Amino acid sequence: MNRKSEVIFFDDFTGKELDRKRWNVEVTGPVYNQEQQAYVDSRETIYLIPGADQGANGALVLHPRWRPGTETVDGVRFDFISGRINTRGKVGFTYGSISARIRLSAGVGLWPAFWALGFGVWPGCGEIDIMENVGAPDWVSAAVHGPGYSGDAGLANNYYFQPGEDIAGWHVYAVDWLPSGEMIFKVDGRLIYRVTYPMIEFFGGWAFDNEKYLILNFALGGAYPFKVNGVRVPYFGLPSETVVKIQNNDARMAVDWVSTKIGRASCRERV
Question: Residue 127's closest CA among 28, 39, 204, 35?
Fold first, then answer.
């Protein structure tokens, strides 16, 4: 394929606050996956910092906090608050190269993620998880979800960092989502997972020819962390030592930049 690309979305978070023309801030509402946080629109949980770290000109920070007794609009109480933002209705795309430079905090049961989601009812709308981490310092995961391959049955792969690397360093997490029926996941340019049309069709319908939008969020506990760590108390998927880390304000997700590029040349049709 001979392809040139055009940047259709880029944010390097160099302003004083989040650009609301590009991003929506989500507020809980519904809670999924038995997560233990309420998402709020607050500078406590979503803020920008100036560049001062390993070439970052500025960074977005999603920062979970210990705020016991927080009550949502639905009358549900949580002991933690956190941040989740998306580009729904502001920036959407079908196919492209999607990437972000991110650094994370380790801590069992922390669940930061960078992903893309389609419109409509899940999982038929299609979900592309470019990066997920459940607090382990040495690995991240990539996955896709759709009809017949969602939740525990999603197609997923773990990537273990090279010696001397971990999630606390800056890494570029990316996917090349191609109209030829292929998704190529990368960390720092290294291929970590390839998902193809035949792989998907073996389990269910292909859900990746439709428009998606971007999401960055920092969840706490819940189903995925629990499946890895087996912790039930003091919170589902979230052990005491991580609660202390959050109470000490030591759990953060920093995002240097987010980029989406689309191809401007014709591609091979999927057969």
Answer: 204
